[in-house]
Amino acid sequence: MGELANCQRCDTVFVKTIRDICHDCYKQEEEAFDTVYAFLQKKKNREATIVEIVAATEVSEELIIKFIKEKRLRASDFPKLAYPCEKCGTGIVTGRLCESCANDIKTDLSRHESIEQLEHTRMKKSKERQYAYYNLERSKE
């Protein structure tokens, strides 16, 4: 059984099951998708960009990006459909980050891991030195 939630688009209360939006907003989204898809099905519009689609269909850019992220509109079918990278804004067709930003994050992560490893090694060596016992007395023969 679903739980009560507020619709993300219109803020009405509805029983949440699979979607985060109410049934009425879902119907509106489906109509918008049908409008966008019908526009892109025409041969002359297959290479339209998001800006051109928004201008022709009056469907919001956020909604079109949502359709692309949900893989309802595929870049393999429509080659100029690109949405902005969440970090730098470069146009991408899959994921949330462009390759450059993803590589930057991987580099930063590996640098952080190596620093942590060095810190761990240093702490281990300092603990070993801390427990050393030295006898300064000379034995009498």
Structure description:
The structure is a single chain. The protein is mainly α and 141 residues long. 48% of the residues lie in helices and 9% in strands. It contains four helices and four strands; from the N terminus they run E-E-H-H-H-E-E-H.
- Write down the Rg: 29 Å
Class by SSE composition: mainly alpha
- Order of secondary-structure elements: EEHHHEEH
What profile does the largest beta sheet have? Answer: 2 strands, antiparallel
Termini Cα gap: 88 Å
Described by the principal axes of the CA atoms, the overall outline is elongated
Strand order of the largest sheet: 1-2
Strand tally is: 4
Estimated helix fraction: 40-55%
Could you list the spans in which at least 5 consecutive residues all have pLDDT below 50?
none
Strand content: 5-15%
Which tags fit this structure?
141 residues, mainly alpha, two-stranded antiparallel ribbon, two-stranded antiparallel sheet, 4 helices, 9% strand, elongated
Structural topology:
Layout: E1 3-6, E2 13-16, H1 23-41, H2 50-57, H3 61-69, E3 83-84, E4 91-92, H4 99-130
Antiparallel strand pairs: 1-2, 3-4
Task: Provide a quick synopsis of the model.
The protein is mainly alpha-helical and 141 residues long.
